[in-house]
Amino acid sequence: MDYDFSAEHVRFRAEVRAFLAETLTPEFWQRHRERGGGGSSPEFSRAAAERGWLAIAWPKEYGGRGLGLTEQMIYMEEMAYAGAPMEHHRRAVQQVGPSIMLYGSEELKREFLPRIASGEVSFAMGLSEPDAGSDLASASTRAVRSGDDWLVTGRKRFTSGAHFSDYLWAVTRTDPDAPKHRGISILIVPLHAAGVRIVPLIDLQGRHHFNEVFLDDVRVPARNLVGEENRGWYVNAATMDFERSGIARYAFLRRTVDRAVDDLQSLPLSGHQSGGFEAQRERIAASAIRAEVGKILSHRVTALQSAGKLPNYEVSIAKLTVTETIQQVCNAGLNLNGMRGLLVEDAVENDEGSPELEWGALYVDAIRHTIGQGAAEIQRNVVANRGLGMPRG
Predict the structure, then answer these.
(1) How far apart are CA 183 and CA 367, in angstroms?
(2) How many Å separate Cα 379 from the centre of its chain?
């Protein structure tokens, strides 16, 4: 495998960095804070869409630039490392769009793909429920056919971004008598439809990111079915692989490791002589090594996708490596900073004016990384079953 990027890819990375420098100015971050901050910024999504950044690897007929998956990976890596507020468009571009291209009807492709590429619409993922988290096959949200519509009733929990999104990518049960992994269908539910109620869920840091979504006989056009009826489990499995394989998670890890290294280098000599310093230095060094491994694993996923394959267990290996390392380096950064490391408060500004979490907040936030998008235990099962060929227990 060639680990070097081509000259064209190097130029493209420089182009993305120039765009970020032009766009993510102190003035931009000031406007972003005045509008409430957070990870979502329609202003940034529109600016990126105008440059054709959102759907880099999509065919031009769907509003993309028709470039390769490597360019898409470079774009996502640079955006995440810069801390760009991508939540308004990220799920639509990274998960929903590719899934519609694979499984959606021509009508769905025409209706949604150009609007996603232009940053016009935003999606939330309606997966987890009170009794169906990692065991998503236990989802009980019902969808019953009624003429030209589906009537959807149920409850989704930990739904990121539902409060600012236009649509819900919903896992629904359309055949209650079928075995657990069958009888599931994917529907695109308008979040502004009658019968939808969105309730905020406040996380450990007091932030509103998650939501609980209540669906009460919500009418969804029959054409909003993605893929075959009762075969939604397989559609959503591919959707989750698109999410787990994202290079953005690795870029966040690298950003966090770099910050920990900066803290190490800025410690006064007395700090270097403290009893706990050496242990934390070794932990951060180990995290930096694991981050490099995570980068190579993430690049491998992109290489497989570029070859027309749909990586599965490879995605789980990459996710496990990166998310567990995020927790490791956040723990080390917290301990390295002593009492100051215990601070859990609103984001502070870095030298560029963009928000940074205190180490205490990063440590608390790191808990979710091995749970969201498929818990670590689920990822290990995927690697065992599909990667090593081991039987199910």
Answers:
(1) 33
(2) 16
Whether residue 119 lies inside any domain: the answer is no
Q: What is the pLDDT of residues 307-364, one digit of tens each?
A: 888 788 888 899 999 999 999 999 999 888 887 777 776 555 565 556 677 888 889 8
| Domain membership flag for residue 237 | no
- 278 in active site: no
Whether residues 380 and 252 share a domain: the answer is: yes
- 238 located within any domain: no
| Nearest 10 degrees: Cα torsion 11, 13, 15, 16 | 170
Q: Cα 364 vs. chain centroid, distance in angstroms?
A: 18
The one catalytic residue among 243, 282, 292, 356: 243
| Residues 130 and 77 occupy one common structural domain | no
Exposure string for 246-268, b = 16+ CB within 10 A, e = fewer: bbbbbbbbbebbebbbebbeebe
Q: Where are the alpha helices (DSSP H) in the chain?
A: 7-23, 26-34, 42-50, 69-81, 90-91, 97-103, 106-117, 232-244, 247-266, 269-272, 277-306, 313-336, 359-366, 376-382
Q: How far is Cα 296 from Cα 237, in angstroms, rounded to an integer?
A: 23
Per residue in 276-312, pLDDT tens?
678 888 999 999 999 999 999 988 888 888 888 878 8
Instruction: Indicate if 223 and 252 belong to the same structural domain.
Output: no
Q: Domain range spanning residue 374? A: 245-387
First to last CA, the chain: 35
Could you give the CA distance from residue 43 to residue 35 in angstroms, rounded to a whole number? 11
- Count the Cβ atoms, other than its own, within 10 Å of residue 38: 19
Whether 318 and 336 have beta carbons less than 8 Å apart is answered as no
Instruction: Tell me which of 255 and 243 has the higher pLDDT.
Output: 255
pLDDT digits (tens, 9 = 90+) for 21-74: 999 999 999 999 888 878 899 999 999 999 888 999 899 999 899 998 889 889
pTM metric for this prediction: 0.83
> How many other CB atoms sit within 10 Å of the CB of residue 142?
16
